[in-house]
Structure formats: C-alpha cells, structure tokens
Amino acid sequence: MTTEYIDIAAADGGTFKAYLSTPPLGRGPGLIVIQEIFGVNNHIRAVADDYARQGYVVLAPDIFWRAEPGVELGYDDEGMQRGIALRAQIPVEQTVGDLEATVAALRQRGAVDGKVGAVGYCYGGRLVFALAATGAIDAGVAYYGAGTAALLNLAPRVKNPLQFHFGGLDHSIPHIEVEQIRDAFARRDDVEIFVYDDADHGFNCDQRGSYHKPSAELARSRALEFFRDTIGPKA
C-alpha cells in the first residue's frame, strides 16, 4: 500500500489536495472517503488506508480548502466549534462540485478498475447523499449524515445503490428523520438502512468518546459487503 497527496483541479478555478491511498496490488475500484467537519485528519487517513488494504484506490479530498486548506482538527469542543464555523463558510453546492471533481480525477487514474463509490461520515455522510443525487458515483455509504432528511427532495435523482448507518442514541438525527429517509426509498431494494441501538453519533471513530466498537465493526462489515456487491472487487 502506498500513500501520497495529489492536486485536484476545481471546476471554478484553483486546486485542492486529496489524500491518495493505493491498494497493495496497485489497482482496484475507486472510492472517495468524505471527511467529517474535522478535516482529513489522522482518523480519516486511517479509514482511507483501511479501504485501500481491502483493494480500493482511495481519495480523501480536503473539502474545507476554500476556507482553510489542510486543516486537521481534534475531537474536542474547540475542534467541533472550529469545524462548524469552517463548514458554514463554504456553500454546499461548491463542496458537492469539488467532490464531483474528485470523482472525475479518480476515474481518470490508470489504477482504477471500473466503478467508483463514496463513503462519508457525519457531514460527509450528508454529502454522500447529495453527491449520489448528481449521478457522479456508482454507490454510496453514508454514516450518521445529520441533515440528510432535509435533502429528500433529491431522492428521485438517486439512481444507484445506497447504504445508511445511524446510531439509535444519536440525538442530532431524530428517529423521525431516519424513518423519513426509509419512507423515501421504501420501493428501492438497493437502498439499505441500518440503525445501531446502542450507538451514538460518531460511533465509527475510535478517537471519539462516542466510539462503539461492536457497532463500528458490524457497520464496516456491511459497508465492505455492499461495496463488493456494487463496485467490486469481486472475490
């Protein structure tokens, strides 16, 4: 497995960095890892590396580059407030455009075999849904994407498979919103929604107090199975 930072050209000018992690065999399906509000920090890089070890060519773009390039925040109150402030400075439409540029850059890489998916966490989970509505990705996995229910007018535009993971104890995503998402895709057998009763927001991140290992491991196994079924690599 090899890692490096590459430059990606934004559609409206400028360039931004993305963390590239290439699998041991050097080739595979493409995968975008979309950060939380804490930047492409060591946790997100670890997630990218884990997927690379599973056979994916992974890009984790710096989606806050327009406000503060290269920011890496911790999971304390200061990091939380700073991340919220940075997110507020960038229109979501620009961020989705940058993600589309990331997908395009990944598809152009010779190491990518076939399809491209996306997985995102927290704000990144919401962005996976928004990105899926553009048709840019072939499949997406969204972890605890707060605010996703507010984007359900985009649901008819989502044509490819999705998988959602929510914590049953997550007060930032009320149960009614999870059910609204479930209802929006009730006729889709390629959209999966999982709720982990004992998990809170951020349950996948082992650097947060809300980390819940059993739920994180189960969600990871489901996400890997989902990606293998939808974008590969096939066993």
What do you see in this structure?
The protein is of the alpha/beta class and 235 residues long. It has helices at 42-53, 77-88, 92-107, 123-132, 175-184, 213-230; strands at residues 2-9, 15-22, 28-34, 57-61, 112-121, 139-143, 162-167, 191-196.
Structural class call reads alpha/beta
What is the averaged pLDDT score?
A: 97
Q: What is the count of distinct domains?
A: 1
**Which fold does the CATH topology refer to?**
Rossmann fold
- Unreliable stretches: none
**Straight-line N-to-C gap:** 19 Å
The CATH class label is Alpha Beta
Radius of gyration: 16 Å
Question: What is the total tally of β strands?
Answer: 8
Which superfamily, in CATH terms, is the homologous superfamily?
Alpha/Beta hydrolase fold, catalytic domain
| Run of helices and strands | EEEHEHHEHEEHEH
The total of helices stands at 6
Fraction of helical residues:
25-40%
Please give the CATH architecture. Answer: 3-Layer(aba) Sandwich
Strand order across the biggest sheet?
1-2-4-3-5-6-7-8
Strand content: 15-25%
Shape: globular
